[in-house]
User: Fold this.
Amino acid sequence: MIKEIWIEEDKYIVDVSYYTLKKIKFKKLLEEVKKIEENTCSIVAINSDYVISLINIIVAIQYALRAFKRNKNISRMFPIEVLLYLAGRREISTTLEYFSSNKIIEDVIIAIICKNKDNIETMKNKLIEKFRLKESEIPINVEKIKRIREFYNITNKEIETTFSKNLEDALVKLIAIRSAFLSIT
Assistant:
């Protein structure tokens, strides 16, 4: 999913995708991503266990960019700031525990944030080649929905108030609201 985000007068191009890959320790993946990352772009790798939609990551990126632009960021590191907004929490250690683990993974969400589309394509191709990534859709199942609801403390009453056509849409809205709340606290 490629989106254009404007933060005041600055334009950013964001590519967020869910990938499957060969088994790798998440920390090892992060180390290798840092080697590929260039000054022109930021790359954020996210454990997909607590993500229901790429839309929530784009919302988190937008809030993180705005926080950095206004010098109101919680973390000194942009990828961690994105994870904080995704989690809707200020606690770095708790957020990293859920979204950046040391377990062995077979899937990952990667967000690439650049000022132009050419750099996005270059970075994406490097990552796909390095890790043999295969783009796919985020798998959603009952267990994952339960895990997400517990992590975000989402109640049935909240879900009802969204007037969404299904549970997945309601969760996307409610997680986006948690990102918004973090930006105003």
Observations:
- The CA atoms of residues 147 and 153 lie 10 Å apart.
